[in-house]
Amino acid sequence: MNENPPWGNYAPSKWKRLALMLAKLGLGCGKGKKVLQRIWQSGHDSKVADIVKFSIKWRLDFSNNVTDAKILFASKEYDRREIGALIQATTNGVFVDIGANIGYYALRLANAGATVLALEPNLIAYRRLLFNININSLDIKITALPLGVGEEGEHTLYFDDLGGGSLVSSFNNRTHKAKIHTSPLIDILAAQNIGRIDALKIDIEGAEDLALTPFFKNAPREIWPACIVIEDCHRAEWKTDIIKTLLESGYKQTLKTRANTILSLPRKK
Asked: Which of 18, 66, 110, 266 has the fewest CB neighbours in a 10 Å radius?
């Protein structure tokens, strides 16, 4: 995808708008999904779309990003309950997005009033994240950094899809590899002068424990996030069950969705 053409260059045609309308009616599942994708893919730059959704401008490219396809074709609001929990916890507060991808969570939270730190180490996804931030003039609300979270140093990111990058070595059979830089979360926060997190989302394909365990071991409790959304699809890859650790540290599980666990920590008044 070329990020250079101005937003609107890939506005959906009449037939593609019809496909989106059918998807909204719930026809984007099963065999219907294949039909809609065939409609969409008829034409130049067939997998790129400039759309407005949730009052936010997006440039989406589902040729190599499943998240973009979910945003575009989902009949229901993608990750609605997760987004809702995070917004509720960050009224004019600070949201940290670890594994920000093209900015679905980051832009939704910033648009709701949060100050956002978005971390995305995959440079292809990072450039798309910056594009989406800039076309919405949200650069005053979102600080985006091309960083992973983990032990300080250079590491290998394994990925097929832009939203599926992992530092876990058992994923080394994936199609692409890229060298990325990672830093401990507590150091990243200090460098950005962030003294408290209101909400945090993490989706880094099985490396969630590597990112969070050192933080909760070393960070003062007063900066711990009040709400955490953590992807648990690859829980079997964790060396430390970080969800169990958080529950033992005072967090409560408030919701379990298909892919994520939502945790909350009551704030002392």
From this structure: 266
Choose among 209, 146, 228: nearest CA to 181.
146
Give the helix, strand, coil percentages of the chain, each rounded to 5: 35, 25, 40
Residue 14, class by beta-carbon neighbours within 10 Å (0-12 exposed, 13-18 middle, 19+ buried)? exposed
Q: What is the largest CA-CA distance in the chain?
A: 57
Structure tokens at 142: 């979102």
Give the number of other CB atoms < 10 A from CB of residue 154: 9
pLDDT above 90: percentage of residues in the chain: 61
Q: What are the backbone angles phi and psi of residue 143, rounded to the nearest 5°?
A: -100, 120
In 3D space, the residue among 237, 245, 240 whose CA is nearest the CA of residue 167 turns out to be: 237
Q: CA quadruple 72, 77, 81, 87: dihedral positive or negative?
A: positive
Taken in order of first residue, the domains within the chain and their CATH numbers are 14-73 (no CATH), 80-264 (3.40.50.150)
Asked if 148 contacts 182 with a C-beta cutoff of 8 angstroms, the reply is: yes
Query: What digits encode the pLDDT tens for the residues 129-188?
Result: 999 999 999 999 999 999 999 999 998 887 665 556 555 555 555 556 778 899 999 999
pLDDT at residue 179 in the model? 85
How does pLDDT run across 95-123, given as a tens digit for each residue?
999 999 999 999 999 999 999 999 999 99
List all residues 6 or more positions away from 25 whose beta carbon is below 8 Å from its beta carbon.
75
DSSP code string of 239-266: SS-HHHHHHHTT-EEEEE-SSEEEEE-P
Report residue 8 CA to chain centroid gap: 23
